[in-house]
C-alpha cells in the first residue's frame, strides 16, 4: 500500500473524530476535521523574515487564476504578500492601507481585480492584482445614513454576476450598500436593529449560486449565524451556527467555509476554529473545533476543541481543496496551511 492510499484510508477511518495521531516516518502527525473533510497542518508554511516582510493582522486571503495566494494585512510596509502554494514569497506591494481588512477577488482572466476595504480610511478600493488603483468607493454621504464619515467602517465586499458591488459595513452601522459597477450608489438594506432582517456585526458577505439563482450570504457574527438575502435585500433564510462567531462566508464548490473568530461568544478569546458546511448548509466538519452534532435537526453549540488558532479571521480554499487560514490579533503570525488528506 502506498503512502497516499494509506493516508486516504486513515482519513476515512477517523472522519468522525477531531484529532487522531497517525505515525509516519516515526513522527506523530495529527489530523483535524470530521466526516471526510480531514486535514493536516503544513508546519512553517508562509513564514518570512519579519524584519523585511512583517505582518500585523492577517485579515484575508484569495487565490488568483495563476494559482497564487494573496494575503492582505494592515501592515503598511507590505499590505499584500503574494505566495505560491508552497509558501514561497513571490511579490509584495501596498503601503497606503492602514486599515486593510477585506480582500475580494473578482473578474475573469486578464480582467481579474481586487476590492480592498479599509476600516481606518473608511473607503473601498478597486485595484489590479499588482496594486494599481482603479476606483475608489468613498464614504456614502449621499445615502444620508451616517452623521459622519467615521461611522462608516466597511469590512467586506462581494461582486454580483452583473458586476454590481455590495459592501458590508460590518464595523459601522451594519448596512449592506449596493453599488453599480461604475461605483455609483444604487441602494442599501440591513442596518442595526432587533428584527431578523437587521444585522449585528455584518462582517462578511458573498454571492452564493450553489442552488441556481444568485443570492447574498451575509454574516451576522454577534448572533452566530449567516443570513441569506435576495440581491435586492429581502431576507430569505437564517443559517444558525451556535457557538460560532463566524467571519466571512467563503464558497468553494458546493461547500461553505468560514473562520470562527471566537467561540462561544465575542468575550471569549483564544477559542477559534474553522467550520465547513455542505450544500444544505449543515455543518459537516470543524478544524480545531468540536464535532458537529445535530439533535432533532438542530445543530448543537460548537466550541474550540484543539488550540490550533487564536483568532482565525479568514479561510482561502485552493484548487486542490487545501485551506489557508489568516488570523487577527494572534501575535503577528503568518498564515497557516492545512492539506486535505
Automatic annotation (TrEMBL):
UniProt xrefs under InterPro entries: 6-blade_b-propeller_TolB-like, TRIM-NHL_E3_ligases
Superkingdom per UniProt: Bacteria
Source organism per UniProt: Parapedobacter indicus
Name of the molecule in the record: 6-bladed beta-propeller
GO molecular function: zinc ion binding
